Structure formats: structure tokens, C-alpha cells
Q: What sequence folds into this?
């Protein structure tokens, strides 16, 4: 019987799969909690690639975490990231790929906007020093619904479809 078919190997693979799912959940929860250190602790310490549609590309975690802290942690900005439909595939013992569907919701009090977006993530995970890291994370927007809220609290749709950037004009 090949080693990869033993019950021990199958359980070990399930544990690695769970560790990667927990890693992605920690990343998303840290984003929602406005926790830059938590976000940093999920990304590969050197050479992490972050390439989100509508944002600049980052080739290291520190510049990305700085931008996240400035934009995502601003007072009056509230986010929720709901990821689902995760598919993990292993390339070898220390490298895996993941795909996720995300529903993102944002309230921005200063801009008086409500934003919902569908996003697809494609990630690469690497195992170093006994733990998994997000080595690359890429996203593409599938849809956006942006509403502006007037002084009376009434929302009006300003973008429906896709945005040109993260929160830019409609395509």
C-alpha cells in the first residue's frame, strides 16, 4: 500500500487542509477586527504577493499591511468578509492552492456608502517552520453594489454591476 493511501497519511492531509482553512479564516477575521498584526501574522514574512483587483500589487506583506491599516482601520469603516466554497489542493507536502468565494460588505460613514461585492480569491499557501502561510493571494471582483446614503438615511444605488476599481466608477 502506497504511503499516501495509509490512514495516517490521509488524516495528516486532512489536518493540513484544516490548518489552511483556519489560516484563511484568521486572515479574514483579522481584516474585520481591524487587526493589522493579525493580518501580518497570516502572510508569508518575506515575499508575500498580494494582488487584489482595484488595488496596487504588493510584493511583500509590510507595505500591504500599512495600506490596510490606513484604509481598513479608519474610524467609521466597518467590514465583514464571508468566505465560502473553499477548495484546497496540495501540490506537495509544503505547498497548496486554495480558491474561495467571498461576499464582502462595507459601511463607510465618512463617504456615506454601503458596498457589497462578490470576490473570488486564488491563494497559494506554503508551509515554513512548521506552519502554513499565505504566500500569494489574488482576487477578482465578480459584482458590486454600491449605495450612497443621503442625509435622511435613504440609500440610492450608485453602482450596480462591477466597479472600475475597489470603489470606483462602474464599468
A:
Amino acid at each position: 500500500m502506497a504511503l499516501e493511501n495509509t490512514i495516517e497519511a490521509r488524516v495528516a492531509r486532512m489536518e493540513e487542509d484544516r490548518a489552511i482553512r483556519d489560516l484563511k479564516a484568521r486572515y479574514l477575521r483579522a481584516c474585520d477586527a481591524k487587526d493589522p498584526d493579525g493580518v501580518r501574522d497570516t502572510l508569508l514574512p518575506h515575499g508575500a504577493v498580494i494582488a487584489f483587483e482595484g488595488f496596487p500589487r504588493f510584493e511583500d506583506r509590510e507595505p500591504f499591511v500599512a495600506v490596510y491599516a490606513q484604509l481598513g482601520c479608519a474610524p467609521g469603516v466597518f467590514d465583514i468578509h464571508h468566505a465560502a466554497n473553499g477548495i484546497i489542493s496540495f501540490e506537495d507536502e509544503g505547498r497548496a492552492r486554495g480558491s474561495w468565494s467571498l461576499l464582502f460588505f462595507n459601511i463607510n460613514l465618512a463617504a456615506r456608502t454601503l458596498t457589497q461585492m462578490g470576490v473570488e480569491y486564488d491563494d497559494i499557501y506554503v508551509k515554513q517552520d512548521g506552519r502554513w502561510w499565505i504566500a500569494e493571494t489574488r482576487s477578482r471582483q465578480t459584482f458590486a453594489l454600491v449605495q450612497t446614503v443621503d442625509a435622511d438615511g435613504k440609500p440610492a444605488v450608485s453602482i450596480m454591476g462591477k466597479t472600475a476599481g475597489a470603489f470606483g466608477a462602474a464599468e
Remarks:
- Residues 167-171 have pLDDT under 50 and may be disordered.
- The first helix runs from residue 7 to 32.
- The CA atoms of residues 89 and 97 lie 5 Å apart.
